[in-house]
Amino acid sequence: MQNLIFGTDRALLQATRTVPIVFPIAGDPVGAGLVDSLARPGGNATGFMIYEFSLAGKWLELLKQIAPGVTRVAVLRDTAQGAGTSLFAAIQTAAPSLGVEVNPINMRDAGEIERAVAAFARASTGGLIVPGSGPAVTHRDLIITLATRHKLPAIYSESHFIAAGGLVSYGADIIDRYRQAAGYVDRILKGEKPGDLPVQAPTKYQLVINLKTAKVLGLDVPPTLLARADEVIE
Fold first, then answer.
1. CA 34 – CA 45 distance, rounded (Å)
2. How far is it, in rounded angstroms, from Cα 165 to Cα 190?
3. Which end of the chain is more exposed for a tag (fewer CB within 10 A), N or C?
């Protein structure tokens, strides 16, 4: 049986050139240099994206539905990753039609996050968008605490933020991503080449809402939004 790497670590993917690689949750595989293109990856790597950049507009739309009074949004982004910049650009594109002003908050360390969120929250009608990234996961509890402390409605890309006290999330079903990646592993072990298997965007998304957090923030979640939710934490 041939060797095969099944993982997400960028340094590992870049350092390994001799064995097939499947990534289950990449942010921007083309921008990161992991593949030549989504349709024809080439080389030894292929896999699955964690989201399409167009999803960023949906985050803004959902945030406005759950908190209609929001007119200013801060996006917590990881500038070290190309996906962070691309997602911010997509949110900026969607913002005018929803009457929202968008501001970036860079996540270099906990102190910078705390200072920037506090400064943003000094003016009213603010909200947060937190795309998935390494710093967002590392500082998850801090971000959720700050959102609650400053009464900022926030939407996240990953459901574990909601289980930890966040307001709402909309993103790919992570388990489904790994399940599909395992299917690619099976196909490669049976002889197919990674470079011939297209990188795929998510097809299954989950909407999770925390009603306890909504109550703390003084928000009434629309019944139509609750009816669409895959999970509601009460």
1. 7
2. 43
3. N
In contact, 207 and 230? CB cutoff 8 Å: yes
Nearest residue to 32 via CA among 86, 103, 105: 86
- d(C-alpha 185, C-alpha 181), whole Å: 6
208, pLDDT greater than 70:
yes
From CA 165, how far away is CA 140, in angstroms rounded? Answer: 10
What is the Cα–Cα distance from 159 to 227, expressed in whole angstroms? 17
Pick the closest to residue 212 from 167, 181, 154, 158 (CA basis): 167
pLDDT at residue 151 is higher than 80:
yes
Share of the chain above pLDDT 70, in %: 91
Structure tokens, 68: 């209609």
Across 159-197, b (16+ Cβ under 10 Å) vs e yields bebbeebbbbbbbbbbebbeebbeebbebbeeeeebbeb
Contact criterion met (CB below 8 Å) for 35 and 45: yes
Task: Express as a percent the part of the chain with pLDDT over 90.
Answer: 66
CB atoms within 10 A of CB 211: 15
Task: Give the per-residue pLDDT at 30.
Answer: 85
Q: Partners of 104 in the beta sheet? A: 75
pTM: predicted TM-score of the whole model, two decimal places: 0.85
